[in-house]
TrEMBL record:
Pfam families listed in its UniProt record: IFRD
PANTHER family, A to Z: INTERFERON-RELATED DEVELOPMENTAL REGULATOR, INTERFERON-RELATED DEVELOPMENTAL REGULATOR 1
Protein's name according to its UniProt entry: Interferon-related developmental regulator N-terminal domain-containing protein
Similarity field: Belongs to the IFRD family.
Interferon-related developmental regulator N-terminal domain sequence ranges: 12-254
Cleavable signal peptide: 1-18
Keywords of the record: Signal
């Protein structure tokens, strides 16, 4: 790509972003919905890099304003989804991700503001969307250093939401907690030694250990009940089945360490997207929902999605057994990887070109 092309590309997306940003600021509910989707799609199409980092920096303030203004439910849901996507793609460090996590958490569990006694309560659909967005972003912090004591409060609060009236809220909270288990956020060593880094005494660490053990037991008990619920008044059958399946999976994981698995055919029999952890499953479900009908197309053609789900072309299935042996040789594997990478790079270029058309 030459510089001229890069500058052209940059100007085009900056102009688009500016317009979308304005729509999020001043638009009707429908306009905010469309504009925030467009911003998210722009980030997904550009992929990880300086452009999507800039998209995040530029639209973050306006999206947070929508959340802080406690606008109508639909606007808030649009803003939450968009904030999740642009941070997922564009954030380059933990601090940036934490900023978005905090904006989302302020919707999940609002603190009383300056006016005492005016604690706001999110409507169930907003609450479920906020938990989903928060969980989706939490999948990205796995590789960063995590301070365990700071998770006690959010995990305790999420566990109370397993008893919420609204099924969507209970399910979102269940997924969030499953991820917390997978990220080992509830695991505190029970050892009595003080922590050299924080100067904490062994006693408070032991208390944290006990608190977390109690939380684990509480969550398991609630998940067990939710996986066996008989269905109350007016319960939607399909929804009830979804809830029971989800909590059965959560129990299987918490009790037996069995990871959730899912696979999606991408093209014919060969290309299959497989997930085998809560992180991946949560990413898959969120992106599937956000991209809607476009999901398969992105998975087939967008290098970002292929990187996220580590999609490899499963050529072995259609080869003869001799070919398979050859294919399995290290040399061939390396060549396949290289070809994959080249294909992805070519696609990134194509995506960028699509934007300037
Ligand atoms: C988007 O709006 C926010 C707040 O109104 C502003 O700070 C930011 O500069 C705007 N970004 C663009 C690209 O227009
Ligand atoms: C419950 O079902 C309705 C329609 O049948 C659907 O719109 C809604 O999203 C479902 N809720 C959950 C939590 O699956
Ligand atoms: C699960 O349901 C049983 C029977 O309704 C109840 O006694 C128990 O307290 C519930 N467990 C939790 C953790 O709520």
């Amino acid at each position: 790509m030459n510089n001229h092309f890069l500058i052209l590309c940059f100007l085009r997306y900056a102009t688009l972003l500016c317009q979308f940003n304005n729509s999020v600021k001043k638009g009707s509910t429908k306009e905010v919905f469309l504009a925030s989707r467009a911003i998210g799609l722009l980030a997904i199409t550009l992929g990880a890099g300086s452009s999507s980092h800039e998209i995040m920096e530029e639209s973050h303030p306006q999206l947070c304003r929508v959340l802080q203004a406690w606008s109508d439910a639909s606007k808030m849901i649009s803003a939450l989804d968009c904030l999740a996507v642009i941070t997922f793609v564009g954030a380059t460090d933990l601090a940036e991700t934490e900023l978005s996590l905090k904006a989302m958490w302020d919707v999940i569990h609002p603190k009383s503001g300056s006016n005492v006694g005016t604690v706001r309560k999110p409507k169930p659909p907003v609450l479920a969307a906020a938990i989903s967005a928060w969980t989706f972003l939490l999948t990205t912090i796995g590789s960063w250093r995590i301070n365990t004591d700071s998770w006690k409060e959010p995990i305790a609060f999420l566990s109370t939401l397993l008893e919420a009236e609204d099924r969507a809220v209970r399910m979102a909270a269940g997924e969030a907690l499953a991820l917390c288990f997978e990220l080992n956020l509830l695991d505190v060593s029970s050892c009595e030694d003080g922590d050299a880094n924080t100067g904490r005494t062994g006693g408070s660490k032991n208390k944290l250990f006990l608190d977390m053990q109690a939380l684990k037991a509480k969550i398991s008990g609630l998940a067990s009940n939710l996986s066996a619920e008989a269905g109350g008044k007016g319960a939607d059958k399909k929804n009830l089945t979804d809830q029971k399946d989800l909590f059965q999976r959560i129990l299987d994981f918490v009790k037996y360490g069995e990871c959730p698995e899912e696979s999606i055919k991408i093209a014919g029999k060969r290309d299959v997207l497989r997930v085998s952890s809560w992180s991946e499953l949560i990413q898959l479900n969120f992106l599937k929902r956000f991209l809607g009908k476009g999901f398969l197309k992105h998975v087939k053609e967008n290098g970002l999605l292929q990187d996220i789900f580590d999609i490899k072309v499963d050529t072995t299935e259609t080869l003869s057994s001799t070919d398979k042996k050859i294919f399995r040789s290290e040399e061939e594997k390396e060549r396949a990887l290289k070809l994959n990478k080249e294909r992805r790079l070519a696609q990134a270029r194509k995506n960028a070109a699509m934007l300037v058309e």
